[in-house]
Amino acid sequence: MRGKRPQWLGWLERLRPRRPRTRRGQRWAVQGVMAACVLGLAPATWMYSVADARVRTTADAPAQQVAVVFGAGLWDGKPSPYLANRLNTAAELYRDGKVKVVLVTGDNSREEYDEPDAMRAYLVTHGVPDKRIVSDFAGFDTWDSCVRAKKIFGVDRAVLVSQGFHIRRAIALCRAAGIDAYGVGVDAKHDATWYYGGTREVFAAGKAALDAMFKPDPHFLGPEEPGVGEALAGGEDADRPHGPGGGGLRSTFRRRNRSRASA
Questions:
Q1: Dihedral, CA atoms, 72, 77, 79, 82, nearest 10 degrees?
Q2: Model pTM score
Q3: Residues 68, 105: contact at Cβ < 8 Å?
Q4: Interval 58-82: pLDDT, tens
């Protein structure tokens, strides 16, 4: 004898979407799916239209005063392989005379996690003078890094350095922030991280389009920093311990974090 049918099966059947029975309903359903696809692809289409023609290699990148390198994680306090490849490319641009200053932008919201200092140390060991490196300790995402490069460090033109799957978004956002930006897409092994990064970009394009449209303030703005100008001038102030503009920014940022925690 069969048991009684569970009640939850009936609930699931009621929740299951039903196929429209009329031609008009079917037509509306198809049009709705098409509209959803168009809206979903619109941000990526915008991103490619704005940035694709500005992607370069190290050989044909235009000469600019500043290169901007975006953080990409640390492994045991040292740059991850993906970040190391970005830094290698920035060092090559510097050695080739394509850029004069490297702005490293990353996360230092916790004392035990310091992307900019790790990036600086790596660049120094690869031939970039310490006084030519500027640190931004509050580059929490691509939009924050672009806005801060423009508003805090006074960068008007730059060569951006990142992996190929990310570089177009970086160019589009920095252009939206007011920077005349070109980008070098760094080659990367097509491993799990690469596929994850490429997939993530599909969804990140939506947030990028909203950031470009509404232009929100970054998580931490703070006062203007003279670091890039000092590094370009090659003055004595460029030899401060944490790089031009870096020490002041880091202490200000951490003070704000402590005050929030105690509130």
A1: -50
A2: 0.78
A3: yes
A4: 999 999 999 999 999 999 999 999 9
